[in-house]
Design a protein that fits this description.
8% of the residues lie in helices and 34% in strands. By secondary structure, the protein is mainly β. Strands 1, 2, 5, 12, 13, 14, 15, 16 and 17 form a nine-stranded antiparallel sheet that branches. It has a six-stranded antiparallel beta barrel with strand order 6-7-8-11-10-9. Strands 20, 21, 22, 23, 24 and 25 form a six-stranded antiparallel sheet that branches.
């Protein structure tokens, strides 16, 4: 998959209609765009979005103190919850339950003793469930998650956070082991839903979706997914403990918190890598898309997006509705890193001047080719002034890969510069 090819943003032709779920509740979602994913809270319960797998990233420092870029030990103390780009970690290598999500990836020699309560999924449970592997090329990292097949020609729904930042995505069919390259059809970060299209797929077995919408507290459920990124679909049984639950990501540093609402709460032992997988009812039908798990105690509390809510987003994406929360295909990409601290990509440069100060430039991107460098301050896009990093991001978000834009900036030594660049397709939004 060539992320630099503007043609990669084209929406695939669809042969199958998107399935719907009868009697599904109306979606209840925040409309605010997520800027980062961190700790989740639901009342007094802390939780972290389940993401990534056991694959360890390269190119990130290991920070066992939990203050830097590394997620460390999992519940079993083996680093099984260490992820890539985003992962679970207790921050001190003790093997205690994860206290949230940390950027980066890592490993640990912690001493925790809890074990994963899951077994290999049966063929029936695996039907329509897939393993999702991603490469985060700009972060020198990899990640793993799960997904659910909606159509025989390869339309797959997963969580947005499973593919966020991905430059390459491959999907493996659980029952056959066949692997496909996947393209992003669209994402909705606020709903934590992403839609993928498997290239060249046909005749795939699809997941059976719930058709009665009568899920109730106390019902038995099974979460099926790529638990801990092990490359095998595991099944974790449990019961529904609550419905219509709201959880909120806790703000971390400069990143605002985000809300997910109307979720199914379960006591199934869901872990890193299960994200995007299927939550099955006692009839073997998909009632939810696993998306989060608690991290405040040894007893796991899982959360899933009701399948009707997820399909509502899928329908909008496939219909080509580019909204404030939905990104179709891949976003336009300049290739700069922006912070939020004044003088380091924040609201003003070190001298207090208006503009977006560049914290870093990624090699091989339009920004690098134009000559932008860390410490430069972008002051305008297409002659329209930008006041800060948010304004620059917003200006670029209005463009598509392949668009030509003119940048105006001031170098760190005060020299005024202007250049015209062609934006490329960036990593998944």
């Amino acid at each position: 998959m060539d992320q630099h090819d503007p043609a990669s943003t084209a929406q695939p032709e669809r042969a199958d209609a998107v399935p719907t779920a009868d009697a599904a509740p109306a979606p209840r979602r925040s409309r605010r765009r997520r800027t980062a994913i961190g700790l989740l809270t639901s009342g007094a319960v802390a939780a972290g979005l389940v993401l990534g797998g056991s694959a360890v990233a390269t190119g990130w420092p290991d920070d066992a103190a939990g203050t830097g870029l590394t997620a460390t030990a999992g519940r079993d103390g083996s680093g099984g919850w260490s992820g890539t780009a985003w992962g679970h970690g207790d921050g001190d290598g003790s093997g205690a339950p994860s206290t949230g999500l940390l950027p980066g990836a890592g490993s640990s020699t912690g001493t925790g003793t809890a074990t994963l309560d899951a077994t290999t999924a049966t063929d029936a449970q695996q039907q329509g469930v897939v393993l999702v592997d991603t490469v985060l090329g700009y972060q020198s990292a990899e990640a793993a998650g799960s997904g659910v097949v909606l159509t025989s020609d390869g339309l797959v729904v997963t969580n947005n956070h499973v593919v966020e930042g991905a430059t390459e995505i491959t999907v493996t069919i659980g029952t056959t082991g066949r692997t496909y390259v996947a393209e992003v059809v669209g994402t909705d970060a606020t709903a934590d839903v992403a839609v993928l299209q498997l290239q060249g797929a046909s005749g795939l077995a699809t997941a059976a979706l719930d058709d009665d919408g009568d899920l109730a507290v106390g019902d038995g459920v099974t979460a099926v997914g790529n638990a801990e990124g092990g490359g095998v679909l595991l099944a974790a049984g449990g019961t529904v403990t609550a419905l219509d639950q709201d959880i909120t990501t806790q703000a971390e540093g400069a990143s605002a918190g985000e809300s997910l609402t109307g979720l199914i709460q379960v006591d199934a032992d869901v872990v890193s890598g299960d994200s995007g997988g299927a939550l099955l009812d006692d009839e073997g039908e998909v009632v939810g898309i696993t998306t989060a798990a608690s991290s405040g105690s040894t007893d796991i509390t899982g959360f899933a997006i009701p399948v009707g809510d997820a399909l509502d987003v899928v329908t909008r994406i496939v219909a080509g509705q580019d909204t404030d929360t939905i990104t179709l295909g891949y976003p336009a990409f300049l290739g700069v890193q922006l912070g939020t601290v004044p003088g380091v990509g924040g609201a003003a440069g070190a001298t207090g001047s208006s503009g977006a100060t560049i914290a870093g430039v990624i090699e091989g991107t339009p920004a690098a080719e134009a000559g932008l460098a860390a410490g430069d301050t972008v002051t305008a896009v297409d002659s329209t002034a930008v006041a800060d990093a948010d304004a620059l991001s917003a200006a670029l978000a209005d463009h598509a890969p392949g668009d030509q834009v003119t940048l105006t900036w001031t170098t760190a030594d005060g020299t005024a510069r202007t250049a015209t660049v062609i934006l490329i397709a960036g990593p998944a939004d």
